[in-house]
Amino acid sequence: MKVRVLIRLKPGILDVQGAAVLRALAGLGFADARELRVGKLIDIEVDAATPAAAQQRVDEMCRKLLANTILEDYTIEAVEAGRLAPRQAVR
Amino acid sequence: MKVRVLIRLKPGILDVQGAAVLRALAGLGFADARELRVGKLIDIEVDAATPAAAQQRVDEMCRKLLANTILEDYTIEAVEAGRLAPRQAVR
Amino acid sequence: MRFGVVVFPGTWSDCDFHYVISEVIRQPVKYVWHRDRNLSDLDCVILPGGFSYGDYLRAGAVAGKSPVVEALLEFVANGGYVLGSCNGFQILCEAGLLPGVLMRNECLQYRCQSTNLLVENVETPFTRGLRAGQVLTMPISHGEGKYYADPPTLAALKARHGIVFRYATADGQVVKAANPNGSVENIAGVVNETGTVLGLMPHPERAAETAMGGTDGLLLLQSLLGTLVEDGTFLKR
Amino acid sequence: MAGTEPKVTLDLARGLGLTADEYDRIIARLGREPSYTELGLFSALWSEHCAYKHSRAFLSRLPTRAPHLLQGPGENAGAVDIGDGWAIVFKMESHNHPSFIEPFQGAATGVGGILRDIFTMGARPIAILDSLRFGDPSDPKTRQLVNGVVSGISWYGNCFGCPTVGGEIAFAPEYSGNPLVNVMCVGLVRADRIFRARAEGVGNPVFYVGNKTGRDGIHGATMASATFDDEAEAKRPTVQVGDPFTEKLLLEACLEAMATGAVVGIQDMGAAGLACCTSEMPARSGTGMEVELSAVPQRETEMTPYELLLSESQERMLLVGARGRDEELRCVFAKWELDAVKIGEVTAGPELVVRHRGEPVARVPVDALADGPRYDKPHAPPAWLAERQAFDPLSLPEPADYGATLVRLMSAPTIASKEWAYRQYDQQVGTNTLVLPGSDAAVLRIKGTRRAIAVSTDGNGRQVVLDPRRGGALAVCEAARNVSCAGGRPLGVTDCMNFGSPERPEILWQFAEAIDGIAEACRALEVPVVGGNVSFYNETSGQAILPTPICGVVGVLEDAGRLATQWFKATGHRIALLGPDAVSLGGSEYLWTLHGRVAGRLAPLDLEMERRVQSAVRAAVQAGLVTAAHDCSEGGLAVALAESSVSGTRTGAAVGCDVTVERGRRLDETLFGEGPSRVVVSVEAARQREFEALMAESAIPWRWIGTTGGERLTVRAAGRVVVDVAVDRIEHAWRSGFERHMA
Ligand SMILES: Nc1ncnc2c1ncn2[C@@H]1O[C@H](COP(=O)(O)OP(=O)(O)O)[C@@H](O)[C@H]1O
Ligand SMILES: [Mg+2]
User: Fold this and answer.
1) Edge-to-edge order in the sheet of strand D702-708
2) Which bound ligand lies closest to the C-alpha atom of D164?
3) What ipTM did this prediction achieve?
4) In CATH, what class is C3-234?
C-alpha cells in the first residue's frame, strides 16, 4: 500500500527557508508568487491489509518519528494503486 | 490560486535520507514500512487568472529554481480553494 | 565522579569529551554505546555533538528514540546528571527530556564560530560555580541550533528559570547581533525542572584548554565536580 | 544475458572514449575481441583519469624520496613520519567536473572520496583543506556555484566529523566555465600501522563493504577525461550522491576491522568503482582475483555486470581479509550497521575473473588493465606567450592615491577574507586545531606528544600561465613558506595538477614545465612529492582554464607551543621584512584588479634563498622570537602588512602599523609587486637584539621596516607618507570584498 505523508511547519511558525525561496523567486522575476512554504514529503510503501490499517500505522510512524509535533503538522494521503499519478498533475 | 509542488529524487538516485529513515523505523518496530523516499513539498500561493496559467507559472519556477532537475523530478498539483484539505486526508 | 560519553552512529564529539574528562579534569570516564540501557555505574551522562544517524530526518530525531536515551528517564529520576551539547541538546529536546526544539539556523547556513554566553541561572549543578551575569566564551558548530518553544512553554521555562545561557555580546548585552542562529530570545542552553539535565548548543569540550583558545567550557564540569575555585574558595560568588 | 548486450565494435569502443589504436591494443593483449563487459573495464581503466596516459611520463620527474617518507605515490595516499611513532597520511584530489555539473553533490562527493583515500591507509582523518577556483564572483552563476560547492563541502565534512582547517578561493574569468574543486585530506596513524591497497595471499577472501551499488556515476572516470561542451547536459545522469553518515560508519568500522589484524589490504571504490579495485589491488601484489557480481549488494534491480563493475556509487570499499577470519570482520561491520559481503577470492593470477550468476563475463590479465597506454605527445610553448611576457607593467600610469589602491586590493575577492566560506565549516572537531583558518597555515596538535603539524595549500594560475616552470615552483614554495611561517618544517607535498586538454601541445607544455618547476622546488626545499592527482580536460568549448597546479604541504613542529600566526598582536613590536627585494607587477593581483591584465614577467626565484628564508623564519618562530609571521603573496608587501593588521580580529583587535619602505623603481611595484621568499615578522622590542643575532646567522637579506600600533596603517617612502589609512577602513574592505558577492 502506498501512502504519502505531507509534513508542514505549523501555521504560526516562521518558515525562513520558504521566505528565502520566495525572495529568490522574486529576484528571478516571479513576482506572482505571493506566498510560499517549504515542507517535507515522505512516500512510504507499507504492508497493510486495508487502506485504513495502512493509514493508522503511518499515523503512528508520524507521531513516533517522522514529524515533530511541536513544530510540524502532518497529513496522510492514501495513494491507491490506480492513482499513483495525482489526477491534476501537469507532469 | 494555491498550488502544491511535490519534489522527489529521480528514481535511480540514492535517497540517503529515505534509507536512514527506513532503518530508523525498522529499529522502532515498524517492520511493515517496506520502502520510503523523502522529498520536498512546496505550497505556493500564486497570482493567476486560471488554474492552467498558475500551473504553467509554477512549472517555470520549478525549472528555474525550485527543483534541481539534475537530481529531482517534480509534480505540480492544483489545490482549489474548496479543496485545501485533500479528500483522503486522515488529519 | 563517573562519566559516560554516549556514542551514536554519527557522533563525533565523543572523543573530545572523553579527552577532556580523562586528561584535563582527570575523572573516570567510559564510552556508552547507543544500545546500552545500563547506566547504573555512572554519575553523569554526556550526549556529545555530531550528526547522529546523519541527522537526515531532523537533528536528533532518531537518536532521541534510542535505547540509551530511553534509559536516561530512569537515570534522571534517580538523580543522575545529563549534559547534552550540540547534537546532544537536539537529542534531549527530541526525546522530550528538555522542552522546545532546535530548528535550522535562521541564516540557513552552518555556523562554526566563537560565541559569548550570558549566564542566567547559577542554581544548577553545572553552573553553581559561576556568577549570574558572567559571560563565557565557547564555540558553536551547527546548522540547526535555533531554539524554539511555543509561547506557553517559553513562559513556563522562564518562570522556573530554565534558561541557563543566552547568546550575548562580550560585555553581556543580549542583542540580535550576538545571536548566531536566530534562537528565540537568544537562548543557547536550557535546563530541566530539577536542574540536572542541561542542554546547550555551544561546545564546552572545545573550550577546555588554553591551547584551544579558552577554558570557559571547563567551568561547567568543574561546577559539577565542586572543584571550581575562584578567589581561593569554591562557590564564593 | 549476452544477448541483450551491445555488440563490441570499434565504434562502440570509441563511444566509450577509447581510440582505434587503444582498441587494437586491447585485442592484441587479449588475443581476441573483448566482451562488452571487458570493453567497459578497459574503457574505464584506460581513461586519462585512471591511467594517467598523458602525464605518467612527466610525473616520474618528481622527487619522491626522503628519509622520513613512509609511502610515496602509488597507493591511495602518501605518508610521512613526523616522529614519536606517528605518521601523517595525506593527499589532494580534484572533483572539478562533477562539481560543475552538480556543485553541491560534486563537491560533497569530492570530500567523501579523499576522506576514504586517507582512512583506507588506516589513518584517522584529522583535517580537510579545500582549494577552489571560480569565475567572476559578481556573476550570479558564479555565486550559485560557490554557494553549492561550499555548502557541499560543509555538509559532507561537518556531518562526517573532520574539521576543514584551510584552503583558498581565487577568482579568474578562465574558471567560469570550469570551476576547480580540489580537496586535500590529512590523517594520523601510527607509523607502523599503515595499511595498503594490496591483494596478497592466494585464497584470501575479498569483501565488499559499505553502501549498496546503484547506477550512479557510471562513466565518471571517462567523463573526467573529456572537455565540457554542449553535450555536458546529456552526460548529466551520472551524478553521484554523497552519504557522509555512512562514510562515518565506514571509517569507524574500517579502523576497528584493521585493529583486529584480519585485514590484509583495502582500497576505496572511487573512480571506475569495482573495476578499478579488482584490477589495481592484485596488480600491485602480483596476484589475481576472482569475483562473483551477483553477490554485490545492489540498490537497483537488474543491474548488468557492466554496470556493477563501473558504478561509482559512493561510500564503498573493497577489502581483502585474512583467510578464516570472515566472521570477525563481518561482526565489526555489522556493529556499525554496514554490509560486508564476501564477493570473491585472491587467486594466483595473473587474471581478473569476473562472474555473474556463475557465468564468466570477463577474464582479463590484471596487468593489462592496470598498465594503461602511455603517451608521449608533442608539447610546445604557446605562440602568444612571448608577447604576453614582454608587456611592461611600468608602462602603465602610477596610481594617484596609494591608500585607496591598497583598500581596493584588500577588497579584491581573491585577497579578501574567506570567512564567509570557512565559518560554514567545522574547524575544530577533534580539538586539535591550534590555528584556525585565517592565518598562513593551519596548525593541529598531535595529542599525546609535544608535536604539531602545519598545513597549507597554494597555487596561482596567473603566475603559471605566464611562466609555467617558475609558477609551478612558486606553488611549492608558497605552500611551504606558509607552513614555515607557522613554525613548521615542511615534510611532504601533495599536488593537484589542473590543466586543459593534454592533446593540445601548448597545454601539455604548460603541464610539463609546471612539473619540472615543482620538481626543482621540491629538491631545493628537500621535500618529496608523496602523491597527487592530475585533472586534464578542464576546458569549456575550447577555452582552457588557467594552468593551475595546487600544492599542499604538510610540516611538523617539534613544539606545539612554539607556533606563529600572521596577525600583529600588540602595539610597539618591531616589524622586519625578510628576504630579497626583487618583486614584479607581472602576473600580480594589482595588475589584474586595477588594469584587468595578466601579463609581464615574474620576479626571479632563487630556490636556495627561498630555503634559507624559510629556515630563518622557522628558527625565529621556534626560538619564540616572533609575535607574528606572514609571507608576502598576492598583493605584495602592502597587502601582507594590511593582512597582518586586520586578520587577527577573530580573536582580538586590529593593530595598525607604521613602516618605511625603500622607494625602488616605482612605488606601485615596491608596495604591490609580488616576489618569492619574502616574509614580514613582528618582534617584541625586548627581543630585538636576539632576533638580530639569529638573522645574522641565517645569511639572508633582511631589515627593520617599522613598528606595530595605532589605528592607522602608515607607509613612508623617501621621506614622504605615501599610505595613511584607518585600519577600520581596511578591515571593512577586506571583510566585505568577497562576502558582498555572496549576499
Ligand atoms: N576555502 C577555504 N576553506 C578554508 N579556509 C580558507 C579557504 N579559503 C581561504 N581560507 C583561509 O583563509 C586564509 C587566507 O587565505 P589565502 O589568502 O589563500 O592565504 P595565503 O595567501 O597565505 O595562502 C588562510 O588561512 C586559508 O586557509
Ligand atoms: Mg600566505
Assistant:
1) D628-631, D679-683, D574-578, D702-708, D657-661, D712-717, D720-726
2) 1
3) 0.92
4) alpha beta
